[in-house]
Amino acid sequence: MENSSLRFGVFLGPHHPLDENPTLALERDLELIELLDDLDYDEVWVGEHHSGGFEIIASPEIFIAAAAERTNYIKLGTGVKTVSFHHPLIVADQMVQLDHMTRGRVMFGAGPGALPTDAYQMGVEPGDQRRRMSEALDAIVPLMEGETVSMETDWFTLKNAKLQLGSYSKPMMEMAVTSVKSPSGALCAGKFGAGLLVLGGISDAALETQSENWRICEETAKENGRTVERRQWRITVIAHLAETREQALMDMEFGLQKWVDYSHHVLPASPFPVEEKDPLAWGVESKLLLVGTPEDAIQEIERVQKQTGGFGTFLFFAHNFVSWEATKRSYELAARYVFPHFQSSNAPRQESYDAARQGHSELQADYLQAVDTASGAYQRSKNK
């Protein structure tokens, strides 16, 4: 893939430690999306969670509606909607409404649900969540594409169901399915021609798994008469940038341990080993964390591109590992120095600079000669 095709965005869980004011935390999430819009990020994905205390957005649709009113360009996706918990007609109806209200800026990200406590509270068996996700999408996708759907499962019924609003985006809004390690997300994405929204680090082993899942997605899409393109492949990375590597590492001491504790006590599978005493050093060494300068980020993204054969969007995992000011600075540094490298936005400027430099000596001589000529003409006119 060409560098110019690489896009950048943010995956917003969100993740807020338990000692923060939740009202202000939600407001700051909206402020972050405003900043991302100003910095020309391409997209942001907003999660859905109902327990655990850290990830406090219960309805990404409500949040996206508010964010849409504050922004102009950035695309807004559910990252992800837990479709195994909701009636498919309601999900499709709400997303299509947002498609109209945002004039096509909304994206539909779907998943089975990440937190076991969410499923437990709703009486959903964890073993049923992936099956229910597939069944829900069997209904949601054709509904969004304008079809009439009749379908009955052990948890929902549709009788000649058809949306009263057609999708604003034709044939429907962009769609993605989450993928961590297992091929279940890739199989589901390929079945519907959706993209992959990948979590799981950028170590060599993780990239090998992700590449295999992308191959499965492509293969499954072909088997189902659909196509997927690498631009639909999104890779999410826990990253923080600062002017120096030392400053970036120091920034991370602000809140990393709180999230590590949350991952150990609440998440079904923490990426950090329980016995690890220095999660920051371990995370950087294992390439679960990308912590450093914009130059470090460029180097790592190039490595990921080379090992995967190319992907569509690099997503920064939104976190509270650093202070609010350091967070904003990190996103700004990425936009100022990392984006241009991969989007070739400075190529014409560099060509212009190189051409001007190459002819500088000759043009400077001509300029100085012109000045001397003008000065001489002026003196001669004064002496008459």
How would you describe the overall organization of this protein?
- By secondary structure, the protein is of the alpha/beta class.
- The protein folds into two domains: 3-350, Luciferase-like domain (TIM Barrel); 354-383.
- 49% of the residues lie in helices and 15% in strands.
- The chain contains 14 helices and twelve strands.
- The protein has helices spanning 22-38, 60-70, 88-101, 116-121, 129-144, 184-192, 204-223, 245-252, 256-265, 279-285, 294-308, 324-343, 347-358, 360-383; strands at residues 7-12, 43-46, 75-78, 81-82, 106-111, 149-152, 157-161, 175-179, 195-198, 233-241, 289-292, 313-317.
- The strands form two sheets. Strands 1-2-3-5-8-9-10-12 form an eight-stranded parallel barrel, surrounded by nine helices. Strands 6-7 form a two-stranded antiparallel ribbon.
- Strand 2 (43-46), helix 2 (60-70) and strand 3 (75-78) form a beta-alpha-beta unit.
- The longest helix has 24 residues, at 360-383.
- The chain is globular and about 105 Å long.
- It starts with 6 loop residues before the first strand and ends with a helix.
